[in-house]
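Problem 12. The chain below contains 371 residues. Write out its predicted structure in token notation.
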Amino acid sequence: MRRIYKWIAFALAFLLFLILGSETVPLADRAVVMGIGIDKIENGYKVTAQIIMPTDSESKSAGYIVLSGDGESVSEALMSVSIEAGRQLSMSHCNAVVLGFELIQHDAVNALDYMVRNAYLSENALIVAAANTAEEVLNAKPAFAEMSSLYLQTMLTKYGYYSIRSGRNIKDFLVSHNTRSQGNWLSLTTVTETAGEVSGEQSAEEPEFIFSFDDTAVFKGGDYVTKLDERGTRGINYVEKHIKEGSIVAVCDGKIYTYFIENIKTQKKFSDDYSAAFSTRATLILKEIQSDDGTTSTANSIDSERNPGIKAAVAKVIADDIRYAYEESKKFGVDIFGLGEGFYGATGKNFDPVGYFDRAVLEIEVKVDFV
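Solution.
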């Protein structure tokens, strides 16, 4: 009988919803945010937003503007942007978040947590760190695109994971923060103004910028601790991502071999003696061979297949990059590959949360196939 009453109450509530409707904000009164950045400033925070501004219905077009607002809190800064725009901010289409360098020193996790919980920002949005300020990144016009927020998405996620670009979303970052190791990382984005024409016509009033994603910001406990260069970025990606783009260069018998990456993926295994085994499988396509005299040539990959020395040289390059990322992060006490979670699963209640990282032994095996 109680179940019937519950269904009746639900039906009445639904009927009232259909009759009375719900309060919505018309599209013309919304500022659609495509990308947002957060910077830590002296007296609080600065929020910068790339906003699509709907125009009249006849033109059926929209332009975009970049607005910034300050506040003692992220909430106040967002309100300042909304007031400046003269519209309510809509975050449902925001797919790129940029964190300024000062912010990632201490407040990155808190700021992100607020945005997800209170600003209705999708946890699937791309997130990057800025080598300088988030405001600079969002105000910079890419040389090969219109909006920097869309350019970030294109370069870091759209075409698959590249060996030297570390695309991550908010969910991945926050989940890593809440692991036992609290080791974390984000792509560190640098923008540099072009010296001349890159994409064709260049206006003196609107300079264009080159974006670099080679470096990676490394975190421990939510705070930035160090930066890894291109080599460290590759090492992280070989383990944490399914790489489908990029290239590898190896030297064998005095010749330089360059390969395109078709596929690189790593599996992890953990033992109760605190040893971790990474098994990396790489499928590569030969691009070119450079001889001692500087001449280049192409050859069928079968030539690489017949020479075990080449396989060993390529495998060593990949393994060394993984080891480099691990060791450089470990200098700052960062378990960049999350070994703690794996060891906890292998040891159970006997897990040593304090000393596991010092006891950890990492073994790396790389198998290479040529196609």
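Discussion. The two ends are 68 Å apart (CA to CA). Students who got a different answer should revisit the alignment rule from Section 12.3.
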